[in-house]
Structures are given as C-alpha cells and as structure tokens.
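Practice problem: predict the structure.
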Amino acid sequence: MTGAHHMFENPPALRHDVVAEAVEGALHNSMLEAHAAVALVGAAMNDNDRAFIEHCCIEVGTRAAAGSQLLGLVGLCLGHAAPRFGHLSDRAILLAETLATRAELDPLDVDGRALDGLDDIRSYLRCDEGE
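Answer:
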C-alpha cells in the first residue's frame, strides 16, 4: 500500500508557557484549537507534571464553548494521565465525569472521547476507590 497508511505519533511535551499560551489562545479563538489540541495531548502523554496537566484540562473543560473539539479531548487527556500517574485530583475526576455525562446527553456538545477518558480513569484508578 503506497501512501494509504498513516502512522500516528504522540506529540512531545512542550514547555509549560507554550502549552498555557496555546490553551488560552484557543479559548479565545476557535481557529487555534488544533494547536491547543496538540499541546494538550503532548502534555498528557509526556509531561511529568500531573498538576499542570490537570490545570490545563480544567481550564479548557470549564471555559471552552459548548461544541468545542477540546472538551472531549480534555476528558481523553485526563484518561491518558490516570495510568501514567496512578492518581488524579478529585476536581479532575469530577470534570471527566461531567464531560462524559455531557457527551452522553449531547455528542454535539462534547464528543465521545470524553467517555473513553472516563473509562480509562475508572479502569486505572479503581484501586483508589473508597480512599
């Protein structure tokens, strides 16, 4: 197969100021969401600062407009962070639950990646239940 097969590679973690600027820009201009998405995925997959990842996801999850592609993505990013760190803050878990509920109610509001993220959180953080 020539040219038909595409490989996905996780983006690298960027400096925190670059990620924060990308997120803030996308919250003010939806045309910048693709750059913010790359920055968020890179952070979720490769940054070693859980609190920073959560902060960025919470900023987007609580401030992005309904229908933003970033809403489902931050749920998924939190799902990717869960197994990496073995822990998420209560606030981050609540956000993931809220986004997943919104995705179930209206997939045009929040896309289904939020549901996948919550599934990952529940799978990987099961040992933390009841603590």
